[in-house]
Design a protein that fits this description.
mainly alpha
Length: about 300
């Protein structure tokens, strides 16, 4: 009887604790990676067009990354022939709005390849597309790490980081004289914003905003992400400023590490820390004429008295 009594808490939680969702895998993360990097690059190239920056190759790469992201989602669809249905839910679906914005982004970006003045307008649908991606995650209320209000600035800031990083990597191959000085400044500002939001996001998740298992994933990821994906790129940018001989290589390395850091962040949030809500019981039902017992929420941090 004593053994059965000791096992009772474990048995009553069986099937109730949050578990890692498997519906969205690396292919879903690929949409956020391609869409974030592509739109980030297009935003900066478009805004740079006001100061004379223009490159057909950069426009093609940006559009190509967005296209690869959408293709990765297509690969995930169980019934690909029904993909057209995504266009019929604009009133309630951010995925539908993302697809509709893509219907503006690609024709406008394609036209900008032949009419350079149109490049100055590409940032508008590119930013709207990036915003839709952030809202897709935020609207998924069943996944605590996605529904946080901080996911919106986190996805937006990392999209700009990835775009600036991609521009620093590609500039030596596409722009005479390399990337303009303002690109490095944008990268520093976007990295600072990303780290700032990340700190609050991780702290909120660890304090009870997410299941214990999901919070543990974020905590374990935090140090390598902060150092490798944010501190290291800034150090490389500083090295580029004081050592002109290696400036071009240091800028490209800074852009690459910042960009890869954003990709790792999205893979972690979408596939590794994506535990669902699980189940909770407000109070245990009474047996016979006895009193009801305390409620329980397995898999979540127990609130302290300070909470």
């Amino acid at each position: 009887m004593s053994d059965d009594h000791e096992d009772a808490p474990a048995m009553r939680h069986l099937g109730l604790s949050p578990w890692l969702q498997t519906a969205w895998d690396l292919r879903a993360a690929g949409n956020f990676i391609g869409g974030g990097s592509g739109t980030g690059l297009l935003i900066l190239v478009s805004l740079g067009a006001f100061s004379g920056l223009y490159s057909q190759i950069l426009l093609v790469v940006g559009l190509g990354l967005v296209g690869l992201g959408l293709f990765s989602v297509f690969l995930e669809i169980g019934r690909p022939l029904r993909a057209i249905n995504v266009l019929f839910g604009a009133k309630r679906s951010w995925m539908t709005r993302e697809a509709m914005v893509a219907g503006v982004l690609f024709p406008l970006g394609g036209a900008a390849l032949f009419f350079p003045d149109l490049a100055k307008l590409v940032w508008i649908p590119a930013l709207a597309y990036l915003y839709c991606q952030a809202r897709i995650l935020e609207a998924t209320k069943g996944i605590p790490t996605w529904r946080s209000p901080l996911i919106l600035p986190l996805i937006l800031s990392t999209g700009l980081v990835e775009g600036a990083g991609a521009l620093l990597v590609l500039a030596p191959l596409t722009l005479a004289g390399g990337a303009p000085d303002w690109v490095a400044a944008v990268l520093i500002g976007a990295v600072a914003a990303r780290v700032f939001v990340w700190m609050f996001y991780r702290r909120r998740m660890a304090a009870g905003g997410a299941p214990v298992a999901a919070a543990a994933v974020l905590i374990g990821f935090s140090a390598p992400f902060t150092l490798g994906g944010n501190v290291m790129p800034v150090m490389m940018l500083m090295a580029a400023g004081v050592m002109p001989d290696i400036a071009m290589a240091a800028l490209a390395a800074a852009g690459l590490t910042a960009m890869v850091g954003g990709w790792a962040l999205k893979i972690t949030i979408v596939t590794k820390a994506a535990h669902n809500q699980g189940f909770a019981i407000e109070h245990a039902p009474a047996r016979g004429s006895g009193l009801s017992g305390p409620g329980f929420k397995p898999g979540w941090r127990e609130p302290s008295k300070k909470d």
